[in-house]
Amino acid sequence: MTYFFQNVVNALQWGSFYALIALGYSMVYSILMLFNFAHGDIFMVGAYIGFGVATLLVAMSAGGAIVLPGWLILILTILISMFLTALLGMFVERVGYRPLRDAPRASAAITGLMIGIILETGNLWLLGARRVSFPSLIQTVTYDVGGVILTNKKIMIVLVALAFMLALHLFVRHSKWGMAMRAMAFDYVVVPLMGVSINTIARMTFAIGSALAAVAGILFSIAYPVLDPYMGIVFGWKAFVAAILGGRGSIMGAALAGFLLGFIEIFVAMAFPSTLRDLIAYSIIMVILVFRPHGFFGEPYSAKLRL
Amino acid sequence: MSLLRVEQLTHYFGGLRAVHNFSLTIEAGRMHGLIGPNGAGKTTIFNLITGVHAPTAGRVVFAGEEITGLQPHRIAARGLGRTFQDLKLWRHMTVLEHVKMARYATIGYGLIGAFFGTPRRRREEAEIEENACRLLEMLGIEHLAEQVVTNLPYGVQRRVEMARALALDPRLLLLDEPTVGMTPEELNQMMELIRRINGELGLAILLIEHRMKMVMELCRHISVVVFGDLIAEGAPAAIQNDRRVIEAYLGKDTVAT
């Protein structure tokens, strides 16, 4: 039983990463009807930006320029990285996607793939083919709750991820920009005819998605502090699966599906050899998709979404 | 000064000439009909006026200012409201949200207001709601404000679309076949409604419609488009007797006999 709960904790942690990344995929897909295949790599860049910011702040702290406690460095790292990664996301939207907004969807899809490759190889060129380690900002504290081992990091990761998801949910429900985003998910053409700039909403969507990917990148680096330029690929694919599984137009669906993916993976690994983990986990998801082709919360829609 | 002046508008989709040298003038507060067989380019003309497509050639002047090729949200903000042939509603949003979206540009409160309810938000929300209630009341759907549109009957959805267009506070309303698929009773109500919008709110209306009786009754001026060309323009009586119009609708042989 403790083994079971131990795995629940681990699944929540993995699910947090997937969910945060899936939100970015899901938002872009819902609102602009395109797959941003560069999103996994934006997660990677977010982690690296976090690494850069954290390393710099730690060095400044050690040099005595300004002495900051670890938790404050962590908060600053998250906020600064969110901001910088959001700028990257807006840049990607402006340069890569906006010129192709009325192009065939396949062209936009390969744009994403190419941007992904550019980000990976750009990183290789900048930092070289070595892994870097994320500075340790907070001391690990371990709690034993009835045999289940919790660490302060795991708890923090899950809570921070949930807090950002809640904030996004509220943003989409209660702000005028969120309202415009929801409207765009239903009908793309009418929104500008009501006086709302599609470009503004598209830019904002990419900025928010990228900022959340940066949060995921930093949280991931706290749990697994070794970064490499290709870390975004598999994560990107899996989060993409979660986004589609959640259902188009449903942000919370994407988050839930992210957690579901975490649970399936961890519990498959609990019962089978870990080499079979993804094989079995993704077979299960394929079966789910057969029965829910529009995802958990998506509604059937026609392919014709534009004039 | 006329409210809308369309000059020599031409548009090609690739090699297909959708609209050719189309001109139109609408005075403030007037109702103007736009008729023509299916595929004549009527909806394309709406799309050109509202900025969905930028015209290949020609000019659109609204309230004395040129709006040709402006982005659609800028054109809408100048007071051009529009409805669609195939209701383009946001299926899972409420009636009130539809009206609110059309007032997007006037929502001034930001994130903090949205999350924590500042006095500014309360004031603006109250204004928007009061405004919306008046509109919905005029359209007879005020009791449905909190309903999700996908659950509403077709005739009501038409009204929601009308409410959304009116919430923009337009000076000119473009209606694209507002009565398509309606029962005779719904049709009469819609005609009555269009008259009121024109009369009480003083809006100019450009109406695409296939029901001749309705266009002839409502509009003092009518333009007829066939294959992208303007073939006739004038008062209903003149249009009804125009040889080219009859040919376009009934075919040449019918006229000859």
What's the short story on this structure?
The complex is a heterodimer of chains A (307) and B (257). With 307 residues, chain A is mostly helical.
CATH class of chain A: Mainly Alpha
In total, the number of strands of chain A is 4
Parts with pLDDT < 50 across at least 5 consecutive residues of chain B? none
Largest sheet of chain A: 2 strands, antiparallel
What is CATH's topology name of chain A?
A: ABC transporter involved in vitamin B12 uptake, BtuC
Q: Sketch the topology of chain B as an H/E string, one letter per element.
A: EEEHEEHEHHHHEHEHEEHHH
Structural class of chain B: alpha/beta
Fraction of helical residues of chain B: 40-55%
How far is it from the N-terminal to the C-terminal residue of chain B, by CA? 44 Å
For the record, give the distance between the C-alpha atoms at the N and C termini of chain A, rounded to a whole number: 56 Å
Could you report the average pLDDT of chain A, rounded to the nearest whole number? 90
Count the domains of chain A.
Answer: 1
- The arrangement of helices and strands of chain A along the chain is HHHHEEEHHHHEHHH
The assigned CATH architecture of the largest domain in chain B is 3-Layer(aba) Sandwich
Strand order of the largest sheet of chain A: 1-4
**CATH class division of the largest domain in chain B:** Alpha Beta
**What form of chain A results from the Cα inertia axes?**
globular
Mean pLDDT of chain B: 88
Structure report:
The complex is a heterodimer of chains A (307) and B (257). With 307 residues, chain A is mainly alpha-helical. Chain A has one domain (2-291): ABC transporter involved in vitamin B12 uptake, BtuC. In chain A, 72% of the residues lie in helices and 4% in strands. Chain A is built from eleven helices and four strands, in the order ααααβββααααβααα. Chain A has a two-stranded antiparallel ribbon. Chain A has a two-stranded antiparallel sheet with strand order 2-3. In chain A, a hairpin with a 2-residue loop joins strand 2 (142-145) and strand 3 (148-151). In chain A, helix 1 runs antiparallel to helix 8, helix 5 packs antiparallel against helix 8 and helix 10 packs across helix 11. In chain A, 49% of the residues are buried. Chain B has 257 residues and is an alpha/beta fold. Chain B has two domains: 1-79 and 170-257, Rossmann fold, CATH 3.40.50.300; 88-169, no CATH class. In chain B, 41% of the residues lie in helices and 23% in strands. A six-stranded mixed sheet of chain B has the order 6-7-8-3-9-10, sandwiched between helices. In chain B, 40% of the residues are buried. The model of chain B has no long low-confidence stretch (mean pLDDT 88). Chain A binds chain B through residues 170-171, 174-176, 178-180, 182-183, 186-187, 189-199, 249, 299, 307, and chain B through 47, 50-52, 71-73, 76-77, 82, 84, 88-93, 97, 100-102, 104-105, 107, 110-111, 114-115, 164, 168.
